[in-house]
């Protein structure tokens, strides 16, 4: 009897990993589905404990030649870009020869906002033969859903603050500035810019108005955001920051916001008496 032909090895998903727990969560999801993963951890950003259980290499952000060679050597065709990476200064990039050529192809987008830069990076990686996938394609259970996600429900004042926050964040997003803001009793306390959500919440603690009900954090995707690379994300640290800032709750764009640990976020919010709610946005469904 002739031996059965060997089954082809499953395709390898490459993960370009910044900080936080999401790169490991994507890797686990791929493995559960029977796939293989290889992780490129960006030095200074990726967390060794997160990517350590998986085949990986730590590589400098601008060493594009080394990154592409490693991905091709492991047979990666699909790529996921996940985890925060601070934009380095041009003086600190020190690109290799391939990196310099890629920077030239990115062109003016290198000096644009985050969304313009990420869009250019996705385009260039596509030109290199990769298919870019969004993390939400692997982490459907971590995408914020519509409606109240815990036991606490926002009242009319909170709903009004959410509506104002949505308008503010849409304007911020249209200018490629940020993905969040805090509103308290009709007053915009803070908007998110380069510092990110956690730092914004630290500022809010000192801006809280004692004569008004606690404020609301609103997080939404930018209108034209490259959703395969930079979806809004919250986690238990965000909920803790909202608690420390004296907020009443958090409103997330449903279908367009990732939660690094949904169960923990909901449990923390319930215990603190905060609402956690998925709301509509300019485009409510990711494709």
What does this structure look like?
36% of the residues lie in helices and 20% in strands. The protein is of the alpha/beta class and 287 residues long. β7 (180-184) and β8 form a beta hairpin. Mean pLDDT is 88; it is low at 282-287.
What's a quick, concise take on this entry?
The chain is α/β, with parallel strands linked by helices and 287 residues long. The chain is built from ten helices and 13 strands. A hairpin with a 2-residue loop joins strand 7 (180-184) and strand 8.
Distinctive features:
five-stranded parallel beta sheet, single chain, 10 helices, disordered C terminus, globular, 287 residues, alpha/beta, six-stranded mixed beta sheet
Q: How does the SSE layout of this entry go?
A:
Elements: E1 12-17, H1 22-32, E2 36-42, H2 48-51, E3 56-59, H3 64-73, E4 76-82, H4 90-93, H5 97-106, H6 114-127, E5 131-133, E6 147-148, H7 156-174, E7 180-184, E8 187-191, H8 197-207, E9 216-219, E10 233-234, H9 236-244, E11 249-253, E12 258-259, H10 262-272, E13 275-279
Spatial strand sequence of the major β-sheet: 6-13-11-9-7-8
Indicate the structural class: alpha/beta
**Helix and strand succession?**
EHEHEHEHHHEEHEEHEEHEEHE
CA-based shape: globular
- Fraction in beta strands: 15-25%
User: Largest sheet, described in full?
Assistant: 6 strands, mixed
How many DSSP-defined strands? 13
Helical content class:
25-40%
Low-confidence stretches: 282-287
């Amino acid at each position: 009897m002739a031996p059965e032909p060997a089954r082809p090895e499953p395709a390898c998903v490459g993960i370009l990993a910044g900080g936080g727990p999401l790169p490991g969560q994507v890797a686990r999801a791929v493995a559960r589905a029977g796939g293989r993963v290889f992780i490129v951890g960006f030095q200074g950003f990726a967390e060794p404990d997160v990517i350590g259980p998986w085949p990986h290499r730590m590589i400098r952000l601008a060493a594009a030649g080394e990154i592409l060679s490693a991905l091709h050597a492991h047979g990666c065709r699909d790529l996921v870009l996940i985890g925060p990476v601070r934009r380095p200064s041009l003086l600190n990039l020190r690109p290799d020869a391939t990196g310099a050529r890629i920077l030239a192809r990115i062109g003016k987008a290198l000096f644009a906002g985050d969304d313009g830069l990420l869009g250019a990076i996705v385009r260039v990686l596509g030109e290199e033969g990769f298919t870019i996938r969004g993390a939400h394609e692997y982490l459907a259970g971590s995408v914020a859903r519509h409606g109240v996600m815990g036991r606490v429900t926002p009242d009319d004042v909170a709903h009004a603050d959410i509506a104002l926050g949505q308008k503010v964040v849409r304007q911020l997003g249209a200018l490629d500035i940020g993905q969040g803001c805090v509103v308290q009793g009709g007053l915009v306390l803070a908007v998110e810019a380069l510092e990110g959500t956690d730092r914004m919440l630290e500022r809010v603690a000192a801006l809280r108005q004692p004569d008004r009900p606690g404020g609301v954090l609103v997080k939404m995707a930018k209108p034209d955001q490259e959703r395969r690379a930079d979806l809004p994300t919250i986690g238990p640290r965000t909920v803790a920051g909202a608690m420390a800032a004296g907020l009443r709750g958090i409103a997330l764009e449903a279908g367009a916001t990732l939660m690094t640990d949904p169960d923990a976020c909901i449990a923390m919010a319930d215990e603190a008496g905060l609402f956690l709610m998925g709301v509509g946005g300019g485009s409510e469904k990711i494709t």
